[in-house]
Amino acid sequence: MSDTLISSLSGGQGLGTLDEIAITDRAGGNDTVDLSSAETLSDVVELINASSAAVSASINTARNGITLTDTSGGSGNFIVANNGANNTADALGIAVNATQASIDSGTLGRQTLSEATRLASLNGGTGITASDITITDSNGQTVSIDLNPSGSEAKTIGDVIDAINATTIGVTASINGTGDGILLTDTALGSQTLGVTDLNGTLAADLNLTRASTTIDINGTDTQVVDGTGAYSVDLSDIDGSSNSISLSTLNGGAGIDASDIRITDSSGSGITVLDLNGADAGITTIGQLIDAINDRAAAGANVTASINSSGTGILLTDNVVNGTENLLVEDVNGTAAADLKILSTDTTTTTIDGIGLFSAQSGSQGALELVASRINDLEAGVTASTFFDGVGYRLSLVVDQTGSANEILLDAGASGFVFEETSRAQDALLVIGEQTAGSGVLVSSTTNNFEEIIGGVDLTVVASSDTPIDIIVASTDADFVDAVEGFVDAYNAIRSALDDFTDFNEDDLSTGLLFGTNEALRVDTQLSRLVTDRYFGVGGIESLQEIGLNVDDQGKLQLDVAELKEAFADNPNGLRTFFADDTNGLVAKFDQAIERLAGADNGLLTNRNDSLQATIDINQQRIDRFNESLDRQRERLLLQFFQLEQVIAGLQQSQTALNTLSPLAPLVSA
Does pLDDT of 239 surpass 60? Predict the structure, then answer.
């Protein structure tokens, strides 16, 4: 989400031109942030963080917008507003004037995945172009919808739906029940037929909306519906389109097709097409281009149609000559191209040539099945598709993402030509607890191989089936627990030692630690001390570390009495577990919450302070760079002035030398 372009938000319509926003933190500090240079949400976050020391910005936890957090510690109102005649704060969803310390923009794009589907991603990735359509409701009222105005054309399915719903005729648009097309519903209840036509393009046809309307009787009222089912879902029958993209170089196990000449002669004996794959037709590099070339020349050459065969495994050539007296021939002229394509034939009776098996030894990553698998996976329907080679050809494999009998896949191959075989049935794991005699024992099921808490405090994972009983002996030990607590004490004391070093003051040489006197260090010290000395309520009989042998010495470090800890474990192991591991009020949960507040990656105290200092460093570095540039310009100006002064002095010296060479003339005496 952080790299999302501003122009791609709001269903692809963008947020408009961003400008300045004004921020007043709860302590009364004011900042103006210029967002005009932001191109992505990440840019917005960075610009806010660089301009305000008391407010931090981040991508929100839902990953669909931004969050602003006031870190000033003040108690006034947190205010974010448009600065001047713009709507930037409103467009970003962060305009607020309240006492809250955090602002979440909420969703800046569409939440419904199918409405956010871009037109450019439909039609197998080739896209659908926005154009104008006409809709006529059952009362005969007609409206033309311009979906391609200059600079603001429809970009998503949601844009098309919004444009239709913005009209005043009796038709509403929505995503259909299967999530694979737009549903148009006539609400006018007139006597005519709901109709959709294209004006200057193919948008309605591409979205499958030009089909005849359906009349549905709802509570005795006839409602007309046009359902664009299949307009943007995967089509398993599209083997032709998928295979058309196969490169000729990937066939024959990767060896490719010999680039040579092929001659096709239809049953008239006179219709001939020659493909010169190593000359004039060298640009033919895919199956689709080869098929198109044959079909394009059918009028002037062999009257033969080329297509993908029904099994999707090769090229099918069909002779279209009526009452032809010869035979359909495909010959190699000077190479093996026809043989490589499996369409070489000199049969005297056939009118069709089927290159079956042509695609069976191709690279799986280039094949039609791989494209089908990719399109299934794009649906994110809880099923993962893949392909594999079984030694003869490639197969399509479908695996349900979730285990258990409730997640059994239901599959209808329809007219796709696929034949599916179940290789592994979805089922629950079964475990019998107790005696395996008639009427004894308890049968337990799990959607996975994990069985939790069927024995108090014990989780079991089944790794293999067994016909004989498995004995499980459960015994408690305090060794691992004591080791874990000792590790906790060592880690806590290490933090205390580091904090002491960073906040140290040396009276002899008056030196200080790196964090001496800082608010952040004081906050860390205070919260850590509180965590190990507080009482924890709502976690049972044990409410403090002191009760189990953990005490704080005069330096703020933890001291562990192992004997007392073991005694507490023996007396109340469940109480210890609750004290440490309760999800809400336990010691570990409290430490996690405190650590997240202090050093969390998103909005932690230390993280925000580090980001703020880094922003200050960057700003100061920019100022230094500007000062250096100014000094360089002044130095160059002074050097030029000095050079010019040197030239003046040199000229004066030359003049003085010339004057020194002059000799006085004797005065003239009168006769």
Answer: no
Give the separation between CA 302 and CA 319, rounded to whole angstroms: 8
- CA-to-CA dists, residue 326 to 153, 271, 273, 319, 338, angstroms: 56, 11, 15, 11, 20
The residues spanned by each domain of the chain are 6-104, 113-227, 236-421, 429-461, 479-599
Contacting residues for 551 by C-beta, under 8 A, at least 6 apart: 545, 558, 559, 561
d(CA 521, CA 594): 14
Cβ neighbours for 130, distance < 8 A, ≥ 6 positions apart: 119, 147, 148, 153, 154, 155, 159, 160, 201, 203
Question: Has this prediction a pTM greater than 0.70?
Answer: no
Q: Which residue is listed with tokens 């580090």?
A: 610
Query: Residue length, the chain?
Result: 671
Q: Please list the alpha-helical segments (H only) found in 356-441.
A: 368-378
Given this model, what pLDDT does residue 70 score? Answer: 92
The Cα–Cα gap between 55 and 643 comes to 52
Nearest to 33 by CA among 41, 45, 21, 42: 21
Give the torsion sign (CA, 652, 655, 661, 662). Answer: negative
At position 130, the amino acid (one-letter code) is A
Q: Under a CB-based contact definition with an 8 Å cutoff, are residues 462 and 470 in contact?
A: no
pLDDT of residue 112: 38
pLDDT digits (tens, 9 = 90+) for 622-640: 999 999 998 999 999 899 9
Token pair of 17, please? 């031109």
Number of continuous H segments (helices) and E segments (strands) in the chain: 15, 28
* C-alpha angle 559-565-571 in degrees, rounded to nearest 5: 160
Q: What whole-number distance in Å separates Cα of residue 453 and Cα of residue 431?
A: 13
Residue 451 CA to its chain's centroid (Å): 34
Per-residue pLDDT tens digits for 519-568: 777 888 888 888 888 888 877 788 888 888 888 888 888 888 888 888 88
Cα–Cα distance for residue pair 580/653, rounded to 1 Å = 93
Phi, psi for 398 (deg, rounded to 5): -120, 125
CA angle 107, 112, 115 (to 5 degrees): 115
Closest CA to 264 of 305, 225, 226, 203: 305
